[in-house]
Fold:
Amino acid sequence: MNRGDCFAKADAALKEKVAKNRDAEAQRVEKLYQQIPRLRQIEDALKDNISKFAVFAFSGNKSEDAFNEFRKRSLDLQKERSEILIKAGLPQNAHERRFYCEKCKDVGYTEEGNCECFKRELSKQMLEISNLSAAYREKTFANFDLSYYKNPVDKEKMELTLGYAKRYVKNFKSNKENLLFMGRSGSGKTYLSCAIGIALAEQGNYVCYVSAQDMISEFEAEKFGKGDKTIDTRRYYDADLLIIDDLGSEFSSQFAESVIYNVVNSRLNSGKPMIISTNYRPSELSGAYHERIVSRLLNEFLTPIFADVDVRELKKLRR
Ligand SMILES: [Zn+2]
Structure:
């Protein structure tokens, strides 16, 4: 599944909801007409009045009396309907079929572009393909708990980093920085990269989250496997944001290095941002990877500061 599939699926999902709503509304109005048959007669009489008026208007007849007669008839019918609805304790538009989305009248877009109703469906699809599976979807900005950082210095560091991450999402379209999250395991790197990914996917961006090992395994399977059609490494190049988690935990090999280099380099060249997290310190990176990778990571990525604590331990204690 790719970006185009997401749009097609979102479109299909919206159409299904619109159709369902249309059927439900038709049934509701039909039931209303069965309960109060006079409402149907009024509706038919109003339609009849409109079509007769159209004939009159095109005939060139300029009679003011005739015009007023049409107008009066229409107003009388509407007044009668209004009174019936009030008496039945129903809203004044109870006889009208309601749209699934009033804002776009169910077409899925407005003058400003895609309508909210379509964006909602698209964001679901984007989350679906982002790999930020159910387990990771809890890791949102809203759920981020600074109270785990007891030491005021740690707390302040994380507050700044959290603020930075939120601004990153806000400015994503115009400012496509690459981020390298370095820090000890459990310091919140995966959490914040997921929070950014989820927020951006919800806004309709094509986000791809993957661990370094899984990404390399997929390239391996593609190159040496038996032509598994479900493998699609294109997304590592195509996604609006690629999040590579836990760089350094992968099985080290020349192939792994070349995959990392190719993906990082190609995305840098095409201006597509990445967030990479690693437990390594800068000095350790140099020992683990070839200079051409290290220099890209240290020169082309911003490195927000993470507090030097293991929040996972604190979370376990609190439970
Ligand atoms: Zn809409």
About this structure: The mean pLDDT is 91. Residues 101, 103-104, 108, 115-117 surround zinc ion (CB under 6 Å). The beta strands are 109-110, 113-114, 179-182, 207-211, 241-247, 274-278.
